[in-house]
């Protein structure tokens, strides 16, 4: 157990250091690593949305998947399996992404933002915990998306192959893709550095089973806190890095690529927390599981990419705080359509949660058997 804890701490520390390093190398402030933001950028780069400020093929996502794939193959942990309600997982992945982009970040970026002093991330953390608590109540009542089954190894390697192909095209024929000339998509670390750092982070995350939602879920269900140690390590390393560089800025307003519309920060991350419990892992964990051969997680990742495209094609994503011409703070937030999408996301989570509870007949049969 002590060994496992140290692996988790090490993985968290490396991910935190990677976030600090990638920001120093050119990634946007408080966004060294963000699964939601980077999948959104990739969706834009391949033409799935036309938001010009968020289009770039992020090597970090590619590296995380391939790092997990390489490590799982090397340790003989690669397990090709699929068939656990893939269509439902696709929809859940899309709404998890919509919730994350309403907040402007995944759970990993939430922790990174906390390390930079962004108090809006505290509101997001509260919503994330609320969503996990709700999801755990359904787990206690028997919620399940049913079991997965063994499939061919080629099926389990689909997302890894797609990522490898995307990397080859990105390096060999960059003219195929769209690239932001301003905004977050225009800020990025050098390709090789980003790829190597992400490969290491993905390999360690695979070994440590790093997962924010899993840490809070296990703490609630089993009083097992070992997965949370990794995210404490991420926070402490990012905090130390920001303090050392003078980048730490505590407060709510005008934080980098963030808004201080508190209700929608909270509700957006409630959708993310609840959906991640139903899916069995946060967005980072879904990438790692897909690299290990989990076809259902690959479908979830594709759902997140489509969710990102919807969010930007239909104006659902959050807008950061800004200064107007009079140098007055204009609080950002989400549009009316974005608010409707977040509420719809909560209703979808509820519907999926209730629909996948054991049927009364099954419960009665189980009682009779006992």
TrEMBL record:
The chain crosses the membrane at residues 61-78, 90-110, 122-139, 159-177, 189-206, 227-244, 264-284, 296-317, 329-352. It comes from the Bacteria. It holds the Pfam family Sulf_transp. Coiled coil: none annotated. Keywords: Membrane, Transmembrane, Transmembrane helix. This is YedE-related selenium metabolism membrane protein. It comes from Oscillibacter hominis.
């Amino acid at each position: 157990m002590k060994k496992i804890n140290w692996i988790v701490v090490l993985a968290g520390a490396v991910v935190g250091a990677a976030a600090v390093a990638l920001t120093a190398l050119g990634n946007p402030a408080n966004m060294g690593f963000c699964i939601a933001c980077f999948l959104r950028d990739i969706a834009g780069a391949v033409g799935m949305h036309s938001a010009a400020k968020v289009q770039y093929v992020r090597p970090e996502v590619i590296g995380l998947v391939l790092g997990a794939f390489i490590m799982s193959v090397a340790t003989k942990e690669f397990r090709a399996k699929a068939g656990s309600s893939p269509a439902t997982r696709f929809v859940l992945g899309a709404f998890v992404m919509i919730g994350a982009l309403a907040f402007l970040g995944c759970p990993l970026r939430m922790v990174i933002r906390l390390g930079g002093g962004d108090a809006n991330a505290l509101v997001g953390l509260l919503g994330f915990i609320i969503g996990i608590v709700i999801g755990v109540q359904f787990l206690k009542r028997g919620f399940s998306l049913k079991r997965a089954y063994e499939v061919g190894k080629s099926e389990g390697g689909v997302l890894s192959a797609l990522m490898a192909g995307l990397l080859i095209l990105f390096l060999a024929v960059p003219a195929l893709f769209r690239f932001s000339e301003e905004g977050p998509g225009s800020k990025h670390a050098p390709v090789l550095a980003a790829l190597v750092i992400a490969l290491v982070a993905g390999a360690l995350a695979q070994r440590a089973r790093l997962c924010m939602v899993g840490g809070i879920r296990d703490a609630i269900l089993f009083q097992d806190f070992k997965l949370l140690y990794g995210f404490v390590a991420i926070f402490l390393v990012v905090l130390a890095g920001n303090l050392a560089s003078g980048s730490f800025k505590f407060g709510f307003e005008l934080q980098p690529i963030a808004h201080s519309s508190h209700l929608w920060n909270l509700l957006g991350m409630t959708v993310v927390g609840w959906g991640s419990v139903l899916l069995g892992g946060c967005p980072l964990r879904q990438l790692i599981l897909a690299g290990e051969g989990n076809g259902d997680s690959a479908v979830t990742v594709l759902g997140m990419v489509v969710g990102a495209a919807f969010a930007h094609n239909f104006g659902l994503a959050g807008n950061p705080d800004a200064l107007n011409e009079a140098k007055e703070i204009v609080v950002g937030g989400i549009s009316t359509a974005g608010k409707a999408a977040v509420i719809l996301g909560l209703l979808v989570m509820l519907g999926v949660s209730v629909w996948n509870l054991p049927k009364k007949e099954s419960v009665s049969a189980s009682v009779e058997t006992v």
